[in-house]
Amino acid sequence: MARADFSGLGDETGLDLFMADAAKVFLAADLGASSGRVVAGLFDGAKLALEEVYRFDNGGVPLAGRMQWDLLSQWSHIQRGLRAGGKMYGGKVASIGVDTWGVDFGLLGRGDELLGNPYHYRDSRTAGILDKAFAIVPREEVFAQTGLQFMEFNTLYQLLAMKLANSPLLEVAQSFLMMPDLFHWLLTGEKGNEYTDSSTTQFYNPQTKTWANDLLGKFGIPTHIFGPLLQPGTKLGPLRKEIAEDSGLAGVQVVLPGTHDTASAVMAVPAASKPGERPTWCYISSGTWSLMGVETPEPIINDRCYQLNFTNEGGVGGTTRVLKNIAGLWLVQECRRIWRQDGHEYGWEELTRRAGEAMPLASLINPDDASFTAPKDMPKAIRDFCSRTGQPVPETEGAVIRCALESLALRYRMVLGYLEELVGGQLDTIHIVGGGTQNRLLNQMAADACNRRVVAGPVEATAIGNVMMQAVASGAVGSIAQAREVIKTSFPVQEYMPKHSAYWNDAYERFKKLLGT
User: Fold this and answer.
1) Same domain for 221 and 279?
2) I want to staple 196 with a disulfide (CB 3.0 to 4.6 A). Which of 35, 258, 397, 498 is the partner?
3) Average confidence (pLDDT) over 109-114
């Protein structure tokens, strides 16, 4: 069991003392693409602390040429996490909520029978699907109705792939549940589609704030399977009786956070937004993916947003997250996995150290190039990209990692420029939240490349945002704005100021040519 850092608790001397004063405990089941955990948020009315009570590995499972999620294993782990939470905190637990990645889903048939394991978004069934989709409905019309970035694995194209394959599951499906909706149904027996995760499907209309049923009908996808759209903060009800008894959490409510993990992460950004005014800061939710965007009161759906392939996803409090998906630390994670297979067990700090010692800005890649989506050998894919684009080939592990990180930072700069164009003004600060905040080298590179102040933290943004949305729903915190103030005073952040901008300006010109912009 991992202990959180409680150094920011002012006069408190540790978790035990803090626990004695904690008025409420909120449990967050936070599932990512590579790991999951159950985290307790301990709130004393003024400050928040986190305690990780259970952690488990997660990931896709190859099965008969497909890639799927092991839902039963995930559910078993969540139950174990609830037992651990019940044992540790008992009657202090007020509620629980689940967040996960977006786009993936499960189907229920008659009698709420689960129809197979949910597919993993990296499964190959959607390869080449966009051309097939746009032959049915023009690309421009899809964007006009949904305002979403075009990515092959979006839920719309997963369902279309099932339709084109005459899937028997789609024919008998009665209910459609996104991944967090599935877990909330397992917890309570209540079915519904939470707003923020539903907005990642590419068949939610952010202007009408309803399912895009007309679009679904044109694709021949049945619309009766989609349930009511529920906002973050909705109280679904108590735990099923058998789960409450098994976990020792009798009377505990299930409350919807922003169930898309990025929505919860953005909830935890320690910055204030003034209603009605244009944004002055942007965020990067940094992990396997880097999701970079702004929080706006309304979606931005226009020709320029369409041309730039940005997305409009739901945020907490009815806001919109205008953002772009960037490959993120997937590049580094996959390099590390390949080197581990070859017998080299490099820790994250070791890889960062080696990258810091490598020659700066020697070679660059497009992090979002299709060759990096799911290569068998990521270091080879990076070297091959450099070779075919006429650049020096990074030979050492440090050079490969530095190439990936510097390219990510330059991609941030490009996306920053696009965001400023979309909102009509300069964004002064970049808030980086999530696990990627621990990569100090990348944080400094982001400040240097973008020539902007970077504020990194909190690390556990997704779990914090999940917990604080539950706190708002319970009345323990008065508003989302107040929740952000609590977060700001409860967790440390680190500031990075730009330097060496001239070198990065030259590199950015090379990067733009590489991407053909």
Assistant:
1) no
2) 258
3) 97
> What is the domain-level CATH number for residue 219?
3.30.420.40
**pLDDT for 361-407, tens place per residue?**
999 999 999 999 889 999 999 999 999 999 999 999 999 999 999 99
| Number of domains, the chain | 3
Per residue, the 3-state secondary structure of 10-35, as one string, reads CCCCCHHHHHHHCCEEEEEEEECCCE
Are residues 19 and 102 both part of a single domain?
Answer: yes
Q: Determine the Cα–Cα distance for residues 174 and 504; give it in Å rounded to an integer.
A: 53
Beta bridge partners of 42: 25, 49
Range of 34's domain? Answer: 15-255
Residue 184 neighbours by CB under 8 Å, 6+ apart: 97, 98, 190, 192, 194, 236, 254, 256, 259
Q: Annotated catalytic, 104?
A: no
Q: Please give the torsion angle defined by the CA atoms of residues 147, 180, 130 and 375, in that order, rounded to the nearest 10 degrees.
A: 120
Query: CA–CA separation, 293 vs 420, rounded Å?
Result: 10
Q: At what angle do helices 397-423 and 348-357 cross, to 10 degrees?
A: 90
Task: Give the active site residue among 30, 104, 261, 368.
Answer: 261
| Residues 247 and 394 occupy one common structural domain | no
